[in-house]
Amino acid sequence: MNFYTQLTFAKPSFLFSYKNPILLIGSCFVENIGTRMTDLKFQTDVNPFGTLYNPASISHALRRLIQAEPYQEKDLFASGGLFHSFDHHSRFSALTAEACLNQINTRLESSARFLRQCQRLIVTWGTSWVYREKENGTIVGNCHKLPERYFIRQRLTVEEIVNDWKSLLQELKDINPELKILFTVSPIRHWKDGAHGNQLSKAALLLAIDELNSLFPEQTSYFPSYEIMMDELRDYRFYADDMLHPSAQAIDYIWEQFVTNELDAESQNILKDCLEIQKAMAHKPFNPDSEAYRKFILQTLLKIDRLNEKMTFFDYSKERNILKTKLK
């Protein structure tokens, strides 16, 4: 007997593998999943512009990566003692324009190269609401706490999102024919417009993705992170204290569903080995000077060596150094 609504997953048109370099871009849900993938030794590049929420800002960021055109000082503005970019998260802001541009362009250059050779792209949309600068109508990725009077807030229509992304998907195919794109909608609720406003916003995203998937069936796919949260995990115990963000337990569950349904069998087995090593690294011994703990460290180093023989691109140098330090 089931006491919850269980999702049925459609067979994906493509799978993910440890052999696939993966670019992830979008909302803070991407940060959660991307950090996990990076820690488990996937070849990743996570949010080269920082956290972005709406489809228009994400498409703009991807086009900047396609063009690989460096940002200039005229693209920045000063506020609160820092220099900012409307295209970037505040993690790129800095005390001087030079420092800000250095961070932005260093990342832009490396991520532009990565986009051309990666095989998978995960895109997470969070909201269809956007902020436009009143002066020129440009959609911003981040308002950087400027007064709301500087912007016009509006919701993108399904047609606007689809038209923008139709041309973008073709541009991506032109520069990287092997690239496969997985769309997701963030399960995080945007409550500024209330329950109904949040649902309208998410509905626009879901309808746009559905249309894009029908137009590009071989190039794109969809992972139902939003539906997992809304249906399988609809109880409030799966939310954080703000009752809007998924809890750690919910993120764990969505990650497990991703692994089960989107990862190929070989990579699922390798993932188990990576998790064993990760667990061993987090182990806190009762007696760190004991012979038993010394053997435990040596066994962990052996596991790393054996895994590196199979997956030569895995970088376990940091873990090796930590373990060897504990042997001294």
UniProtKB/TrEMBL annotation:
<protein>
    <submittedName>
        <fullName>GSCFA domain-containing protein</fullName>
    </submittedName>
</protein>
<dbReference type="Pfam" id="PF08885">
    <property type="entry name" value="GSCFA"/>
</dbReference>
<feature type="domain" description="GSCFA">
    <location>
        <begin position="22"/>
        <end position="258"/>
    </location>
</feature>
<dbReference type="InterPro" id="IPR014982">
    <property type="entry name" value="GSCFA"/>
</dbReference>
